[in-house]
Amino acid sequence: MAARRISTSLSRSLSASASASFLLSRGKNPSRGRGIYRFITATALEEPITPPVQISYTQHFINGKFVDAASGKTFPAYDPRTGEVIAHVAEGDTEDVNRAVAAARKAFDEGPWPKMSAYERSLIMLRFADLVDKHRDELAALESWNSGKPYEQSAKSELPSFARLFRYYAGWADKIHGLTVPADSNHYVQTLHEPIGVAGQIIPWNFPLIMLAWKVGPALACGNTIVLKSAEQTPLTALHAAKLFQEAGLPPGVLNVVSGYGPSAGAALASHMNVDKLAFTGSTETGKIILELAAKSNLKSVTLELGGKSPFIVCEDADVDKAVELAHHALFFNQGQCCCAGSRTYVHERVYDEFIEKAKARALRRVVGDPFKKGVEQGPQIDSDQFEKVLRYIRSGVESNATLECGGQRFGSKGYFIQPTVFSNVQDDMLIAQDEIFGPVQSILKFKNVDEVIRRSNSTRYGLAAGIFTRNLDTANTLSRALRVGTVWVNCFDVFDAAIPFGGYKMSGIGREKGIYSLNNYLQVKAIVTPLKNPAWL
User: Fold this and answer.
1) What are its E.C. numbers (predicted)?
2) What is the CA radius of gyration of the chain?
3) Sheet with 344-348: strands ordered across
4) CA 372 to CA 49: how far, in whole Å?
């Protein structure tokens, strides 16, 4: 359910059988006659490194216990380095979701969690964060094994952020309170901020643990109970995290984790009549389905964090070397599988040619390989569907007469690796400039002035994020206020502090995650009005 899907425009215009062989057979862009700079790689990867972790949890976690699916079915979890099965995980459906929701409902209505003091809840969350630190290497290895992201990224960046997010929300738990409101008449008015109840949460495959923290953290801090559906591509770390929550003292039924596919388990959760709140991260197309299911059931409130096609704007006064490195990171981070990736690189015409040459050189230096090997910057795409989708977009770019500067081919002969790819001379009406590719494909466009780049940057159905690279404060202020996006990074990118809210404009979503704003997603506001007789003051 959370997987990014191929846009309808792409599937209409490109053959489903397109593959890297199209590019392997050509040394030039046929429309431009310009030689392609070959990405020099080995023809095959070395034997995969054995991950330093055992897979211990493959069942659903419901009401404080690991249990099989009601149907007895399982589905495979894969290693994207090889495409081989590494585990068989319980496959949830409607009956499993019903069991999980019942456990969460009972834990909220009758259990100790909502009745605990906020301070006690915060202590459990802090104990969980300490356990994450203790098991950091194990969790990082599991995350990289199942998702293909570099182990160094998981261990040194994502796991510390994961623990930090829970400590951040633990700090909020005992600071959530209402207000005393002055009334015009003789009445005492107060507001209460109450937990919303049972929260259904559906997380994606690109950042499994981080997305779990973005959703579970604020929900727990506010006193809710949870049914979480992990992505079918990456079910393993959510189950391991559930075990650590149990060790931290979280009462049974407060956090339930169901593995399974979107059309079955995801749809059952979104349409469940006893779920009070739904949060989803994934594609815009799937987000529409989620919103419809929520509306047609019990009109539950919905938070959506969806797709993006973020502009990264390099102004004429930019330090080109620094801009190239930052734009490279903005696009290629996490194999390009990032909803806010700077996937439309707008470069001022005065520095465009220099930027192209240096961007190409940087892409050719990017180290692709086994994510468990030290120094590797880029691992495989998540699965065969995503792998083929990215290659079809690359073919679309070539057929649309964009110039393929480097890459464009499969890396090696095993797994789902793709060479870092750079296109120049990209136009706004090309699919590679319009659709969310979700892969290592950098599209570089030319612009003349600030007004033009504002108009072109905003001419998209998305509005998740943007990057600006300039030395001019006035330019930065003009652009940051004019861009219709939820986050603007100025001379930086992908800064995800726990306190910084994240979410999108337009079809990039509804609501905000992280920071104080995320608490509103999991709270109800109740007004209580009491008469005052002969008050000394109002």
Assistant:
1) 1.2.1.3
2) 24
3) 403-406, 421-424, 441-447, 344-348, 311-314, 465-469, 487-490
4) 6
Secondary structure of 105-119 as H, E, C letters: HHHHHCCCCCCCCHH
pLDDT by 10-residue block (mean), the chain, 538 residues: 36 35 35 38 68 97 98 98 98 98 98 95 98 98 98 98 98 97 95 98 98 98 98 98 98 98 98 98 97 98 98 97 98 98 98 98 98 97 98 98 98 96 98 98 98 98 98 98 98 97 98 98 98 92
Strands 65-67, 344-348: pairing is unpaired
Query: For residue 249, with 0-12 CB atoms within 10 Å meaning exposed, 13-18 middle and 19 or more buried, which class applies?
Result: exposed
DSSP 157: I
**Among 271, 334, 347, 346, CA closest to 101:** 271
User: What residues have CB less than 8 Å from 160, skipping those under 6 apart?
Assistant: 136
How many angstroms separate the CA atoms of 523 and 538, rounded?
Answer: 28
For residue 235, the one-letter residue type is: P
Question: Hey, which residues are catalytic here?
Answer: 305
Using the 8-state DSSP alphabet, how is residue 368 labeled? B
Find, among 513, 491, 484, the residue nearest to 500 by Cα.
Answer: 513
Tokens linked to 521: 């997603």
| Cα–Cα distance for residue pair 191/178, rounded to 1 Å | 5
- As a whole number of angstroms, the distance between CA 102 and CA 107 comes to 8
